[in-house]
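Good morning C.,

I know you're traveling, so I'll keep this short. The sequence:
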Amino acid sequence: MVSFLNYDQCFVRDFVPSALVFPMQGNTKIVRNFLATTLLLQSHHKAMDDF
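The tokens, ready to paste straight into the viewer:
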């Protein structure tokens, strides 16, 4: 069984270049929606990572 321990962190990390380019092109809504969605998907209880 494969464990995806840091999938959420990699997903956000990989979006960073796009998050810098989109506003320069006037597409701020994409970045705003991405950040709002990732905040909603985060766990609301504190937990330790498996590292």
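Safe travels,
E.
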